Amino acid sequence: MATKSLSKDEILEAIDQMTVLDLSDLVKAFEERYGVTAAAPVAVAAAPAAGGDGAAAAPAEEKTEFDAVLTEVGANKILVIKAVRELTGLGLKEAKDLVDSAPAAVKEGVNQEEADAVKAQLEEAGASVELK
After folding, report:
1. pLDDT reported for residue 40
2. Which of 76, 51, 68 is nearest to 109 (CA)?
3. HEC per residue, 59-106
4. d(Cα 63, Cα 58) in Å, to the nearest integer?
5. Whole-angstrom distance, CA of residue 113 vs CA of residue 69
6. What is d(CA 44, CA 90) in angstroms, rounded to the nearest whole number?
7. What pTM, to 2 d.p., does this model score?
8. Bridge partners, 44 (sequence order)
9. Quick one: pLDDT at residue 65?
10. Over the stretch 43-65, which tens digit does the pLDDT of each residue have?
11. How many angstroms separate the CA atoms of 103 and 132, rounded?
């Protein structure tokens, strides 16, 4: 039985359609199967910026991906849980667990516009959010 190979573009398109939670599970499975970690390239990329001169490091420091971190739930925990469910697609128990574990990342690796939208929606529900 012949198997069809996916092109690089098809794989990237499939990844584009994943939720943050699905992508996190994929990264964990990839790490386990191939015995690698996704954190290693980040550490390697950060090392030259720390050791280089200030002029060379400035362009590398421009941040394009942000994490929206729930820092405090506030008085309206139920509204915050509802907002987290809307933003992440998590079930009720998972969203409640995320809210209860604050500070916790609600969205990771998103662009500035999406991070601001997440922050606004959670703050409207009464939570405190920090963009990192």
Report:
1. 45
2. 68
3. HHCCCCCEEEEEEECCCCHHHHHHHHHHHHCCCHHHHHHHHHCCCEEE
4. 11
5. 15
6. 33
7. 0.51
8. none
9. 81
10. 444 455 455 555 544 555 677 78
11. 12
